[in-house]
């Protein structure tokens, strides 16, 4: 459910008309709905009512300060994967004791800053990283609270680039070696073993892989207890999918029920790290049609947005619905078109053989749906295209939460070595 709807024939974000926004902000731009963000967070969090659970929003999905603050105000914690993300989360008001630092490789400086900030937990993903964290913590006279990320060797049945729980993936420590590594960690002076972490992949549309992984995790916790290693926190990662193209992913309540069934009896604190589910359908990318080009084989609708603004279609063959901002277009005769951007690559395609109005004109606006997660955060400046602005809407109000970068600012980042002067 989201708050992007046609009102009087025109697409609105909550109470704000998209064409009016486009006039003010220019195109392309990202537009997020506060009501949708809040609703998704609340629905997800309430699936764990009665459990001792913290929702640590995976800020990699959308880390704009305004988005983070919106969620922090509802009590969200944050899952971060770099010192940059950690600073973003803390600056937006997320309490340090609700910040989890994940990721396959943390630099010394990142470990130091995390220990200084006294965040809740650092998730360790390899023995060398564990040894390094131990050294850093001892050097600082601290004990690092850690979870070890375990790779359960479970196929999440999602796109290969976002599956993380299989033996061939780079993530975590193989579950077959878990006990040995926990023993090692428990003996380290700078390490306080508090948890166990898992994240098997993203955009899962079925509960079965989660169930398999969490059952494995539960067995491990019991084995560790037998060894005298007490696990207090289970970090179950994110991964619950959303509907991009008619998928019917399990609802948060069903996911919550499965969590209860698989790990509820362990009496542990539970951390959840949803990203896409919170932000994905809370955002759209608005773009203007620049040209309509009738080729020999195809009609191309050339937008002013490109793959640098939204990389998901070309990177993962991801489907994003594309709709006209003027509702009449939905009712007019439709044409099958390829929707593309102006970047000089064939992969700069948002959708192939899409139904859009036959009379779509240059100047018309389209909305690329479900772009709130892994959209703006993955944008680049390829082809010297400045970063796209982001707008947050709340009821009838809007705010530009990241202004459009100017091309001069972008070029101004370069430095000329003195020998070229
Ligand atoms: N926790 C960890 C440790 C993660 O690595 C991720 C995502 C999440 C939580 C959040 O997962 P989510 O609930 O959003 O599925 N760029 C890709 C998605 C990459 C996900 C990476 N890890 C995409 O656009 O589909």
UniProtKB/TrEMBL annotation:
Highest taxon listed in the record's lineage: Bacteria
Keyword Amino-acid biosynthesis on entry: yes
Keywords: Amino-acid biosynthesis, Decarboxylase, Lyase, Lysine biosynthesis, Pyridoxal phosphate
Residue list for modification N6-(pyridoxal phosphate)lysine: 60
Binding site for substrate: 276, 312, 316, 345, 374
Pfam families in alphabetical order: Orn_Arg_deC_N (PF02784), Orn_DAP_Arg_deC (PF00278)
InterPro entries per the UniProt record, alphabetical: Ala_racemase/Decarboxylase_C, DAP_deCOOHase_LysA, De-COase2_C, De-COase2_N, De-COase2_pyr-phos_BS, Orn/DAP/Arg_de-COase, PLP-binding_barrel
E.C. code: 4.1.1.20
Active-site positions on this chain: 344 (proton donor)
Cofactor (UniProt): pyridoxal 5'-phosphate
GO molecular function: diaminopimelate decarboxylase activity; pyridoxal phosphate binding
NCBIfam families hit by this protein: lysA
UniProt similarity note: Belongs to the Orn/Lys/Arg decarboxylase class-II family. LysA subfamily.
Full protein name: Diaminopimelate decarboxylase
Name of the gene encoding the protein in the UniProt record: lysA
């Amino acid at each position: 459910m989201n708050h992007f709807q046609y009102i009087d024939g025109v697409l609105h974000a909550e109470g704000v008309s998209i064409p009016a926004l486009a006039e003010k902000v220019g195109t392309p731009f990202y537009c997020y709905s506060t009501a949708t963000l809040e609703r998704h967070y609340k629905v997800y969090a309430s699936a764990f009512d009665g459990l001792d659970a913290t929702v640590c929003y995976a800020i990699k999905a959308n880390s704009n300060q305004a988005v983070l603050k919106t969620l922090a105000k509802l009590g969200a914690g944050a899952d971060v994967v770099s010192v940059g993300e950690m600073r973003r989360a803390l600056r937006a008001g997320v309490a340090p004791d609700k910040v989890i630092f994940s990721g396959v490789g943390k630099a010394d400086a990142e470990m130091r800053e995390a220990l200084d900030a006294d965040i809740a937990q650092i998730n360790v993903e390899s023995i060398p990283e564990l040894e390094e964290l131990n050294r850093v913590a001892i050097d600082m006279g601290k004990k690092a609270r850690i979870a070890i990320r375990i790779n359960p060797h479970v196929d999440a049945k999602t796109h290969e680039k976002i599956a993380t729980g299989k033996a061939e993936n780079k993530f975590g420590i193989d579950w077959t070696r878990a006990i040995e590594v926990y023993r090692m960690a428990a003996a380290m002076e700078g390490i306080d073993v508090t948890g166990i972490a898992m994240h098997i992949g993203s955009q899962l549309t079925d509960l079965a892989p989660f169930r398999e992984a969490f059952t494995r995790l539960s067995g491990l916790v019991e084995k560790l207890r037998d060894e005298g290693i007490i696990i207090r926190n289970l970090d179950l990662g994110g991964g619950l999918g959303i509907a991009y193209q008619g998928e019917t992913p399990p609802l948060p309540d069903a996911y919550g029920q499965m969590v209860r069934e698989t790990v509820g009896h362990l009496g542990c604190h539970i951390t959840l790290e949803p990203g896409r589910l919170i932000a994905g359908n809370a955002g759209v990318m608005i773009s203007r049609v620049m040209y309509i080009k009738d080729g020999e084989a195809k009609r191309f609708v050339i937008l002013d947005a490109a793959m640098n603004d939204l990389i998901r279609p070309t990177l993962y063959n991801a489907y994003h619905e594309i709709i006209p901002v003027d509702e009449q277009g939905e009712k007019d005769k439709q044409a099958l078109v390829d929707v593309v951007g102006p970047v000089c690559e064939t992969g700069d395609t948002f959708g192939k053989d899409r139904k859009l109005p036959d009379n779509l004109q240059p100047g018309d606006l389209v909305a690329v749906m479900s772009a709130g997660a892994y959209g703006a955060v993955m944008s680049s400046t390829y082809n010297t295209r400045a970063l796209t602005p982001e707008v947050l809407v709340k009821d009838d109000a809007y705010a530009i939460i990241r202004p459009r970068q100017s091309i001069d600012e972008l070029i101004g980042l370069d430095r000329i070595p003195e020998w070229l002067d």
